[in-house]
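cache lookup: miss for this entity combination. No prior model stored, computing from scratch. Input as submitted by user K.M.:
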Amino acid sequence: MDGQPPLTRIVVWLGHLLVLAGALGGAAFALSVLAGGAAAPPHLALPRLFPFAEMSLSVDGLSAFFLVVVALVTAAAAIYGPSYLGAHAKAPVLQTFALAAFVACMALVCCAGDAMTFLLAWEGMTLASWVLVVSDPREENARAGLLYLVMAHAGTAALLVVFLTLADHAQAFDFAALRSAARGLDGRTRTALFMLALAGFGAKAGVVPLHVWLPKAHPAAPSHVSALMSGVMLKIALYGIFRFGFDLLAPASGPLPASWGWTVLLLGSASAVIGVLLALQQHDLKRLLAYHSVENVGIILIGAGLAMVLGGGRGPQPLATLALAAALLHTLNHAAFKGLLFLGAGSVLARTGIRNMEELGGLARRMPWTAWLFLLGAIAISALPPLNGFVSEWMTFQALLLGGVRLGGASGLLAGVAASMLALTGGLAAACFAKAFGVTFLGRPRSSHAEHARESPAPMIAGMALLALACIALGLAPGFAMPLFDRPTAELLGGLGASAVVTARGPLVLTAGGPVNGLEATAISMTVAAALFALLAAAAWVVSGWPREAPRRLAPTWTCGMTPTARFDYTATAFAKPLRLIFAAVYRPRRQIERETGPSPYVLRRLAYTGEVVDLAETMIYARVKHWVNATAQEIREYSTGRIHGYIGFVLVTLTVALLVFARP
Amino acid sequence: MERTQHIVRIATETGLLVLLGPLVTGYVQKLKARLQCRRGASLLQPYRDLAKLLRKGTVRSDTATPFFRAVPALVLAATVTAATMLPVLWAPSGPALLPVGDSILLLGLLALARFLLAIGALDAGGAFGGMVASREMTVGLLVEPALMLAVFSVAVAAGTTDLGELAARRDSLAALSWQAPDLLALFGMLILALAETGRIPVDNPDTHLELTMLHEGMLLEHSGPGLACIALATHVKQLVTLTLVATLFFPPGLARGLAPPEIALALGAFAAKVLLLATFLAVVESSYAKLRFFRVPQFLGLGLVSAFLALALRVL
Amino acid sequence: MTSNLLWLAPLVPFAAGLAMLLVRDRRALAALDVGSSLAVLALAAAIARRVAVSGPVSALGVFRADDLAVLFLLLVGLLAVAVAIATVGWMRQELARGQMRKDRLRWYFALVHGFIATMVVTVLADNLGILWIAMEGTTITSALLVGFHGDKHGLEAAWKYIIVTTIGISFGLFGTVLVYGAAVAAHGEVFAGAMNWSSIAAIAHKLDPGIIRIGFIFVVVGYGTKAGLAPVHMWLPDAHSQAPTPVSALLSGALIKCALLGIIRFHTIARGACGPEFSGGLLLLFGIMSVVVATPFIIVQHDIKRLLGYHSVEHVGIVALGLGFGGRLGTYGALLHVINHGVTKALVFLVAGDAIGRYGTRDMRVIKGYLGVAPFAGTLLLMGAFSLAGTPPFSIFVSELIILRAGLAAGRYASVAIFLLMVVVIFAGLILHVGQMAFGTAEATVDRQREARSPLLGMLLLSSVMVLLGLSIPASLDRLLARATEIVLG
Amino acid sequence: MTVELATRLIDVLGALLLFTMLVILASGQLFRAIYAVALQAVFLGIAGAVLAAATGNPDLWVIAGITIVVKAFVLPWLLIRVVRTVQISREIEPAIPMTLTLIAASGIVVLAFHLNASLGPVRQTITGNALPVGVTLILIGVLVMASRRKALVQMVGLFASENGIFFTAMAISQGMPLIIEIGVILDVVLGALVMGILVLRVRSSVDTDIADLESLKG
């Protein structure tokens, strides 16, 4: 906060500390509710603002869990924020206030007990995040902000219809009344309402066809806000899907309609693969992370979809609970490592002012803390073993294999397809983050900014460290986190809590109460594997580093004898080239090479390469819709000639037509 | 008592895999030389290379970060931890007392090793490190899902993904006797084993031309004991891959108790299976030419499709 | 229950108007303007209290204030005050920029007060003939105001305005005559107060449905032209874009609502005579047409005031939609929407006026970086735009929510779907335009003088009402709206 | 003055009004249209007198008198003064081909009388064919405004349609209350004054007919 006047600094710090306190308070309250077991959810009636709607807050298991997710990333962002804002801020006080409003709205959405509070908080969340996106009023930020707003508004319009139809049947707004009213509806309307709700929340969660705004809006916000938007706001949209799918629209008893689960599952798989494929070709650090949010939302939806399919008796009950626990755990994991990665990218942006990987490089030696925390986040997001990304993906695999695929027939095949998509996603994510970490932090600095980068101040590192700690804790001892999911899974699917299925004895051992088609045989222990890994690594380190008098020498990297310069390092574009060839159908790559040769064609003076990858959803759907809407509007506009005779003519015609049509009884 | 016996079992099996790793590579090199009418180096040559490397000094790139020195140790640790999850001699009877990991964790650890190697290659900077890292990750992202699908196709029938349990059930349950999906899965696994162990059609282990090597390229900047660790890790990884194929598709021969004749029989069966697969590797190496890199995805695609079909047939 | 407050309410602005003709000094005129507007608002509040306490009040056999009239009277009073406060600073800037000539000031203020007086009479009129005469009066005064600048465009707009609305209103008169005839026929002979709305509404069920049906069609098309219902709305963007900013605010905020009041009065009679389906169906049709027709023009619009004009057409359509959906909820939502839209549209017009003054052009592609030039007004512009587009923390979202719920309750899913689709498209168009205006960086030639206090004060008054209604509906307003709904439903 | 005689007289006057309307529609000269409107106002006054005699309602006499004074003399005088000061060509150019307007006019007449037929028992209260004639006059008046280029002709059309309204208003059971009638006529005059001012203002500043301005569009 060096570059700001003292008063602003105090206000910003105070604001952020307030947000931190709120986050910690919220977390404590949520954990108490989660530990509360089957106790009735705390209910708080709000003052009657509107005569037709009684507003209230009620925090049940699901709300409490999502509150924990909100609190975790908010705490990190609050610690991180002030020092980030100092160097980078356009209107820090406004941003602090908007951040507080944004977090408050997100918490309110989770705890909303009725449709009115939910809708008000939901749009408040959108508006507050829009203010943060456009707080730095550059041209592309405004455009990104606009697309974000329009998509969010369209989503809200869909939600409005769902809420109001239910409210109309229930003649009340609170969730209990909506729940009972939904039970009265017939299957077809409930499915239509669910699909509408899925579209509404999907637009906000960045599910594939509706994800176009996400990579544009998230990078535009300041980084700790991007972390909040990607890590938490997408989860609030998923909370909506959980709330409607399992709770509000669920039938009184028996399984959910099959179409719900499979739609969510397939949307999730599509989002996962397409999200990570597009992320691979991005060279802007924050856009890459935003596309990855689409991927991880997909993974969560795969778990949720599977839980919807297996729930209510269609598949074995423990596996349904396992699938839901996997989805919720991945929600928490993604909040942690995506938040960490965005804060890391923010620290690089704060120090170098550059987001494009091609101009960075060699930052690991200059910003060690940021580099290794970013690497930790990269390993976690690529679902590689020691960390939490792997655990939730492992549980999703177990649920997919032992639950989904064993259903047999077409549904089994669909689960198989989802499993293969998930496996592919893991590999792609690892390749993407090898590129992201390698090109940004390793090798030689490719610009003066990267050359003179210095490590970020302590609070930023502390913010990142908090989330890294969460990743490590969830990675090494996931079993201890299982009780966190007991209440939500029990409430949503009834019966077993998550910890009953996934025994919480230190290591993550997947045992059910009694053998369910061989379920108890699969057991892994992250703790023991990690201990073994550490032991062996130490042993190898000692053996290879044995105090010997062998000479140690530093030499330039081997480049066939030439003296290596920064230009030698492999760029991100080159790194991702093989994938552009393999997935050419999805990318439709386009490239343009200008070759400026000297006197003879073989003397190359200048070579300029511009390559571009296309986001299919954007070009196929959005560009066409925008063009069509503008074209028709322009066409209609030609009709108003501005001649007064036309005006009078219209009055006359309207009257005569009205008389002809309506006058007769 | 039960727990310590379990630990001893795991320790011996892992020790066996680590020690025999270089021997298998030596055998493959020897067989290749023979097929090409050469005498070839002795079977123990890899051990001598490792001993030599441990004694040599290190040359480190000036742009590398301190992390670069840690990469070899981490890669070796990841590979050996993966090795602990494979049932080599004994098939466990009841639920594991001290579970370490299942097939998904094994493949995850191998992926972690590949990721760390790629990061190490990028760390040194320079064109070759970047190029090899990019190619290795590309091959990785095609091989990993295929391996997982192959393992899943067998795990779905067995009802568990834990390799020990799976091998035990393989020969006991009639349902798991050989059917069409197993054949497809085996075919897929063999293709992917070639890629995983960095053999000819995908990558050439013996070349020194920087532009063509895939796995070797990542070792370019390592030297001395670090290089020894990575070389050992490569050998162990090769043996782990072969043992994984053996466990999934050739189950008989795993011992139950501790009686010496049973162990000897299990050892013999294990040796036979590994030699059979090693011979397959050597034969393929010396009879095919290396594919141009941008043709490799089609080759691996074949493996991916057959693995997926195995899973699909298992379900339908 | 008679009260002389009723005839005092229109007299005050009329007298102030005449007094202004004698005064030349700008400050005195401004003071008189604000004073008389405050008086109107005070009288409106007094009448509201009186009606709340002792039910409908009448005076001179011609005026009558029931809850419905009070609602509109309060809106007219509030807007009059806000516009008067804003005009003080605005007029000084206009004089400085040479847009307004000093010698014609008194005519301007006099006409504005004549305009307010006629609107008050329209709202309070019980006799349908007086209602018509006052409506014609508003047309004449506002036509002169629209053409006040005397440039080519202004006169063209004024001509179109006066010709088209006079035709519309003559249709309204013919409708009134028919309804009056039906009332006399039903009663057998000319009875005292035969033309009073209260007496006609009382015997509405006895009226002959055939003639009422024709009469209502004439009224809907007639007063609909004045209110700006599509397809007879085309004069509205021209008139609202050429009128001076405070007049545009009054036109869009208050005048359109008075025309709607006329339609609502006849809607009650028609409901009584030929059942709710007929008039509700007609209003629903006009409402949907307005929302659909306004959308393309909003998306590709370049002139900020024409954009707001078309937006008024859309919102009038939404009110008609609310009435069309009918039932307690639909009417309640429609009446609330009248208040919300009146307040918000006036606010956005005032801010747009300030922006046009500073940039010297109405073309939204040229106006850039307004947030940088005038931060307070810029924020209010964004708030107003969001409110108009129907985002929650602001008032219009609440009324649209109620109307939507009424639509779903009435089972009219097709029109609800069209309504929602058009609202989302208009949201995109409006926010695109306003976003371009607010963000980016302004050129050097833009007038960056400090924001005058009084326009800001007027705008803040309106925006505070907007946000207050957005977050909650006060109990007193809720009771007033409920009673007004009862009156409309007959 | 018996009721049947009054009804027959009203029918005759209605027919005469229709005739003058067609004259306005077909007139090519501005002055001819203005005189036709004046004639229409005279017939209106006579109808008022007939109804006053039939129903014995003193107000109707006053209204008939005012109508003739204002509508037959004041307004035409105002129009002629505007025409003289504006010195524009006296021809009336049609904006829409003449044949089309004539077809529309006939359609309107058919619609009006068809509407009248569909009415129920309430028809007796309106003496004679006042309702259909009134509707026809209004719609053809607006048709004239929509189909002629000149502003003044549009004003003529407006006055004609207002005459139609007055005719029906008077015929409906002894006419509207007196103050309403006077108020309406006052408004019409004021409207005409404002329109005149606007036409003169445009003529002096831009020298084109105000109805031709069409720059505000889209």
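stored under new cache key. The mean pLDDT of chain D is 84.
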